[in-house]
Amino acid sequence: TGFDIQEVLDQLGLEKTNLGASTGSVWLQTKGEVLESKSPVDGKQIGTVVQATEEDYHKVVEKAQAAFLQWRKVPAPQRGEVVRQLGEKLRDYKEPLGKLVSYEMGKSYQEGLGEVQEMIDICDFAVGLSRQLHGLTMHSERPGHRMYEQYHPLGVVGIISAFNFPVAVWSWNTALAWVCGDACIWKPSEKTPLTAIACQKITEEVFSDNDVPEGISSLIIGGADLGKLMANDTRIPLVSATGSTRMGKSVSEAVGRRLGKSLLELGGNNAMIITPNADLNVVVPGAVFGAVGTCGQRCTSTRRLIIHASIYDKVKDVLVNAYKQLRIGNPLDENNHVGPLIDTDAVAMYNAAREKVVAEGGNLIVEGGVLSGEGYESGCYVAPAIAEAENHYEIVQHETFAPILYLMKYDGEVENAIDIQNGVKQGLSSAIMTTDLREAERFLSVAGSDCGIANVNIGTSGAEIGGAFGGEKETGGGRESGSDAWKVYMRRQTNTINYTNELPLAQGIKFDL
Ligand code: NAD
Question: In this structure, are residues 304 and 290 in contact, taking their beta carbons and an 8 Å threshold?
């Protein structure tokens, strides 16, 4: 692997066998099935976790509820100070945590470090926010009255996360939720349990130094069943769920039945439009990184290129050449561009998608394939593929979480490309490559991209924490991270105060006694 995994585990305080539930500094004696974490990098077992049971889940929720009642009374800037210290601690642990992310999930070491950097950035953002959780003041229609709104802490927030951003998504939620005065319970992906335990241990150090009530940061490790318990639990006013659209529909239905709130960050089917006015120096790295970075396992990965017919052949040739340069292998070796898929199930889905696109009439111009032999023993390494396809193909309409890029043509004006790009069920990220101001503005206009993220001369993947992150349609409509995404973690209250000795009613209603 190029590093000593035992040293990394020691630095992060992980054991070979770990407990799968914690309320902060207390680790529950879980008795669920043992979960094995195997690295897709080399197929070796990294460690095991004794999963949480339903009984453990209820203990954790009770603790979180009690802790919330105390935490909500701590002034927000003081909560911000705790999050500031967490950001500092993450700086100390950036290297080992980045390595473990890379080794357990399979993304490149640079991306592992980048993910931890995002955690640090959101902590910094949240610290400032802790003094800015403000509402508006309105003018009352009644004389001698004042009207304003304020935001109060919401309660216990349940966080369900996906394997592909095993640590950043947790901190996007928790850093904000904690300054907002909430308690958080995290159910990470069962594919990346060890990075989750590492985060919990880092948080534990900071929280115990600051006497944060036990239960503000809780962790429960297990499968979809635990996620379902959260979704159905009226003690959890907000469930923030990141993962597949299938999972999001299930969570949303359960939370909706009890009229709770959900924040959904689901699958994407992201396209890049390449117009005749595109600068190919920007297009090529943008498209290739977007399609093959993280081995195509980002929610914002580029799945479709919509290329103007007049430049189609040229772009295609450049891409095919660029794909020949890709080095696939151990993601901890910085010379490699592409690491493994998460597991062999993902490899099977990649293979099925390549077959399906051909069966539907597509043409694999970069064939891809599963790699074997030295360095590829885990069976999770695949070569990125490119297929010429049409947007209406069922497989193109579907998000395959693997490095398969579909090329399609458009004729005439940019509106034709926008129609294709919007012609899928998902609505996460989108990009246009053009140096023409009018084309760019049409893409960003009311009649343009229908996605939550729309970029100009930038690929579809890679977002900054300062903006609100999320997408429309089957991507779920949630927004996390920057801008005013914090509001979902609080409850809004409108207050009207009468400072006269009369009681005028709104809308001038008369009610004389
Ligand atoms: P997944 O849906 O299989 O699992 C995600 C999480 O949901 C896991 O923790 C899992 O245990 C839990 N879960 C599964 N079914 C559940 C249910 N019925 N009720 C409650 N919880 C349930 O997703 P994955 O394979 O880990 O991740 C890949 C997917 O995540 C892709 O579709 C990707 O686009 C999406 N994703 C989206 C974003 C975003 O911000 N929009 C970010 C990262 C990943």
Answer: no
The yes/no answer to whether this complex scores an ipTM above 0.95 is yes
* Neighbour-count burial of 136, counting CB atoms closer than 10 A to its CB (0-12 exposed, 13-18 middle, 19+ buried): exposed
Pick from 195, 219, 244 the residue to mutate for probing ligand 1's pocket: most ligand atoms within 8 Å of its CB.
Answer: 244
Among 162, 79, 174, 77, which Cα is nearest to 118's? Answer: 174
Residue 390: both structure tokens together: 């049409």
Quote the CA–CA distance of 271 and 312 in Å, as a whole number. Answer: 15
The two beta strands, 363-366 and 183-187, are: unpaired
Burial of 478 (0-12, 13-18, 19+ CB in 10 A): buried
Write out pLDDT tens, residues 112-129.
999 999 999 999 999 999
CA nearest neighbour of 354 among 407, 397, 403, 425: 403
pLDDT tops 90 at residue 2: no
Residue type present at position 492: R
Which of 301, 278, 231, 223 shows the shortest CA–CA distance to 414? 278
Instruction: Indicate the pLDDT class of residue 3, thresholds 50, 70 and 90.
Output: confident
Binding-site residues, ligand 1, Cβ < 6 A = 160-165, 187, 189-190, 223-224, 227-228, 231, 242-244, 247, 250-251, 265-268, 299, 399, 401, 428, 475
Any residues with CB less than 8 A from the CB of 480 and at least 6 apart, and which?
169, 172, 173, 176, 240, 263, 265, 468, 469, 470
Cα of 394 from ligand 1 centre, angstroms = 21
Q: What is the CA radius of gyration of the chain?
A: 24
How many angstroms separate the alpha carbon of residue 201 from the centre of ligand 1? 23
Cα–ligand 1 centroid distance for 222 (angstroms):
13
pTM equals 0.98
pLDDT for 95 beyond 60: yes
Instruction: Name the residues annotated as catalytic.
Output: 265
Round to whole Å and give the CA distance between 97 and 170.
14
Q: What pLDDT, in 10s, does the model give residues 225-275?
A: 999 999 999 999 999 999 999 999 999 999 999 999 999 999 999 999 999
Mean pLDDT of the chain: 97
